[in-house]
Amino acid sequence: MQLAGPSPARCSSMSNDFLLRNINTAECGSENTAELEKHEVRANNNFADLFRMRTIVNFYIHYLLSLCLGLACIVCVCLWNSRWRGGFAWDGSPQQFNWHPVLMVTGLVVLYGNGAVLYRIPLTWGHNKLPWKLLHAAIMLSALILAIIGLCAVFDVHNAGGIANLYSLHSWIGIVAAALFAIQWVAGMAGFFLPCSPISLRKLLKPIHVWMGVCILVLSIAACISGINEKLFFVLKKDHPYSKFPPEGILGNSLGVLIVAFGMVVLKILFNPDWMRPDYRQEDVSYTPILQEENE
What we know:
mainly alpha, globular
């Protein structure tokens, strides 16, 4: 008589089936987990791409607005001085003075503001910074030259007419802004252009350069709007008093509002952390001279 019971082969088969089911279950679980992880990665990437695209579009809206406001400022100041102030000359006459507001608004405000936001343009990200640094320096140098010519125009007119120089608050703010701008440009060229400048100097100069740039823009805007108001008080007296809202006064006030609006948009661009060049956000930034700049 044989004893009843499971055969060894059958036990082995059942054990193998159990192991296979566990392995298949584990494999299915791992595949599901991997698919979920891939789905989450794709979702995060899509969200990041969407956020990046929205940020870039938002930037270009503000940048286009700043360009339009800057152009409107130049058109208004040229229209004001050509239509109501008798045009332009360079002979010591009041028409020579008209170059002063045109050049100061164009140089110290519009060109300066556009040069300041140059590194915020996404087109400059991920590329060699050398051409953009050269363009930044060129724009700022152009703005400085225009500002110097504008100062020469007003000093010549004052000296030819026996008028005192630098007595008003407008002139004090304006000359301080121009002097700081000249120092800023020279210091920037020495610190970021010359290969012999030490790394410690560039690290120290960088935040000062950025902070000083914002201060110069604010001072330039203050000088321009105070100068516009001062000029309107001087010229609108008897026949067309300022208080009667003459067309020239309205245009001058509008010019001041446009300058303030331009400055606000530029400052918005400069202070938005999402629009900063990516390498600016790094804590450990490598400061290299402009002549040694490499692709980033």
